[in-house]
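Review form for a predicted model. The reviewer records the input and the model, then writes brief findings.
Reviewer: anonymous (R2)
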Amino acid sequence: CGLLICPEHGLHTGLSVEQRLLSSEPIPLLDTEPSDENQIALATLAKTARANGLYLVCSVIERDEAFYNTTVILDPRGKIIGRHRKMHLYSEAGLMPSREKPRKVHIPGIGQVELITCFDLLFAEANQESNSDLALWLTHWYDETPHLTVLSTARAWAISNRTPIVACNARLVREGTLGAGVFFPDGSGQYSMSFSKKREALHVFDLNETSSAIIRNPRDVLTPDSIYQPIATDMSRFDQVPLVRMAGTLRIDLLTASCQIIYELQRPSDETLYIMLAAEGTRRFGNGDRLYMQELYVVAVNKKT
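Model under review:
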């Protein structure tokens, strides 16, 4: 079946908080069609789904007793068959976090589909009850190293949850929010990015064609002369511990917490050095936000470079 996915806030890119709330719409009941009078944007998208015979997933500002960041899925009849209100907001003024658990949607030819919105991916509610056949992740996720990139986040989620995931990211070049892809539980995937100055970008993937490529960095699948560079965080704030043994135990002491890490290197290499990074404190992100975080990563470094 055909599946068209739009990124988080794809209908509201560039709008102010007030403009976003003014563009909000009530979401009709499941298995009903949006109204041309009350749901203008959704009704337009429903016509697109009907005209092309596809399932369409989009992000809207829902107006109910409060305002919500809501993902909806329309079927080829133009009817709403699924909805997910974002639970964990990220600097989204005027919106209310939801307490509703995510609901799975059945799509013929695919199976049980999980709708996940951006920051929700990092919390236990996503895929906690039983494995889905596919997860759809609508996001506005900037690429920043270490760890917080669409590639590493989506790939790690697919592996740890043993579930394929499609990532649909917003496009803001200055933040590195450029990529989209599908990631599989074996670590492989298909991933593409667009550097076009146009705001529109369509990434096409075949869910039936798994890739043998293990994607670790955008440069694995992009041209080497690309101008793209992930935003690099200040590495001096990390305690760095080289993992010199194949397996072992480490004690990590942060400002407000301590933990013991048991590790085992499954793919050792004479050319690669593995380093554990630990830090705690306020971190500034690519979009200007500041969060107090406890961070722990393992990074692989090529000894030759």
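Findings: The first strand starts at residue 2 and ends at 5.
Further findings: The radius of gyration is 20 Å.
Recommendation: see findings above.
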